Amino acid sequence: MSDFWEAWFLGGDAYDRNTRHALEQQRASEARARSHLAAQMRRNQGDLQAQVDRLTEAFVAMVEHEDVRGELIQHSDAAAVRRVAREVVSTYVVTGSAASVAAPVPDVAGYWLVPAARSLAAGPGTDEGRRLLDEAVALDRRRSLTLRALVAAVRGEDLDLAVVDEVVPHAGETSGDVTHAQRLVWQAVAEGRLGDAALARLEEHLSGERTSVADALVERVTAQVGSHRIAAEAAVQATERLAVLATTAAEGAEVPEAEAPRDTGLVAAFYGLPGDRVRDAEKVPVPAEDPLSDCLRALVDEGAPGEAQILSRMTEIRTRMGLLPEQPDQRWDRPVGSVDALLVDDLCGNGGGPGARALALRVAARPVRAAAERLREGTGPAGAARTTVRLPGATVEVGPDGAADDGWRAAVERRAREDVAVSPALLPAAVGAAVLGLVLLVLGVLSPGWAVLGVVVLLVAGGMLLGRRHAVTSGAEDVVARLRRADREVADTRARAVDSRDADLAREARARTASEQVSAATGASVG
Q: Counting Cβ atoms within 10 Å, is residue 263 exposed (0-12), middle (13-18) or buried (19+)?
């Protein structure tokens, strides 16, 4: 309808309705605009607040940075010691001597790194070097001996047993976890880099009652093989996996005749080497990552007493300011786990090299055998399972050797014959009906109606006899079919039991072989 005719029919009502509709649309548009403007203002306010917070944090960090720098100025002598110590350590690692370092180590009272670096410069094997090392030990026993052990590990030098006793972890320790530096020295000793005497001493320290190794080893190996729908198969696979780990560890324990190459260039880029020493270090390939050199750098850069906390704060502030990227924990004394957990890592191939695995196998030979026996027990007995078969009229236990009761077939047949039995009254009733029909036929001589009724009764009697005969025949066939089905079900159950028994026997043989391999590997390792 056009606007003209609408206005003609409706009059002023059409105008009012259109006006209200336009006003509603205008109000809805204004509401949407206000909502959009409010959302935009909230976003701008949030962004502005975030920027203000970041600027405030950056300003606070900058002020703290300047304060910390002022505090670090008071430790400028310690910073000079570290600069020279880096050069001394780098030069000694590459060349085996730091006598060519021109700058002497500055003297800072109470700083352990001063006599420790001077000991390397004088030569750790000299009387002067030993005297300076004793002086460093008197200031800070733990750090001084750790520095000596790390340098020897990088160089591949024989280490004094007194240092080994102080640095490597002990089996009886209960206070805290093994540190990162201890773990690196442990691995270096296990690989034979610090001498046979150090290896024997480390094995002596790690030996002891490893009560939790067997449990952890079972859990770790079971997790490695994964789950299986048959629990016994999972236990066998775990036992075989443990046998592989033990055998390879025992084979890796054999010391090679040729001397292993010494990684003298691992710390060549320790902070750079001056002059010709840089060119000499470039002749040795430097791995992209070396935990020993990183740990050595972290120990040297830790700072003097009272300065270490300031350096840590400086690193944290510079990270907050975005001047340094987020980095993982690089401390040399960060915990890396307990002795038992690290032994399990080595046994499972998640720790060090073949030397560490062989050492772990020798130290934890008894728990490894206990873990193998526990996994073997998880395979269960073989051939003992029987299955209950429920048949119509009988319940029988079927195993690999057949049914437990030989009378089950007679019971099934008896139940089947009871189910298909024909009523005994049917035959007499049919005979009686036939006699009655004959009598009625005789009476038909007197009246034709009796003859017709006699024929009907004879037909009914014949149907009853035929039905009884069919019921007897089909019942006999049903009994035979039921017996065949029962025989087939019992035979199939027996076949499955035989297969299960054979599989159990095969799993038991596999588990026994794997357990014997573990025993042989641990015996050869200990021997």
A: buried
Phi, psi of 396 (to 5 degrees): -135, 145
Half-sphere exposure of 402 (CA within 13 A, CB side): 6
Spatial separation of the C-alpha atoms in residues 152 and 261, rounded to whole Å = 14
Q: How is residue 303 annotated by DSSP?
A: -
State what percent of residues in the chain have pLDDT above 90: 2
Which whole-number Å values give the CA distances from 212 to 209, 216, 234, 274, in the listed order?
A: 9, 6, 22, 50
Per-residue pLDDT reduced to its tens digit, 147-177: 899 988 888 888 888 888 888 887 665 556 8
Question: Measuring CA to CA, which residue among 268, 272, 296, 303 is closest to residue 282?
Answer: 268
Largest CA distance in the chain: 156
CA–CA separation, 111 vs 98, rounded Å? 20
Q: How far is CA 423 from the centre of its chain?
A: 71
The pairing of beta strand 387-391 with beta strand 394-399: antiparallel
- pTM over 0.70? The answer is no
**Contact of 75 with 304, CB cutoff 8 Å:** yes
Q: What is the tens place of the pLDDT at every residue in 425-460?
A: 666 777 777 777 777 777 777 777 777 777 777 787
Distance between CA 373 and CA 519 in Å, rounded? Answer: 10
How many other CB atoms are found less than 10 A from the CB of residue 32?
A: 10
Q: Residue 283: its pLDDT value, please?
A: 37
Fill in the amino acid letter for 346.
D
Segment 177-188 mean pLDDT: 89
Distance from C-alpha of 518 to C-alpha of 240, rounded to nearest angstrom:
9
What residue type is assigned to position 84 of the chain?
Answer: V
Question: Measured at the alpha carbon of residue 395, what is the angle toward residues 390 and 396, in degrees to the nearest 5?
Answer: 105
Please, which residues have CB within 8 angstroms of residue 411's CB and are 6 or more apart in sequence? 393, 394
Q: Angle CA(241)–CA(245)–CA(250) in degrees, nearest 5?
A: 145
> Amino acid letter at 155?
R
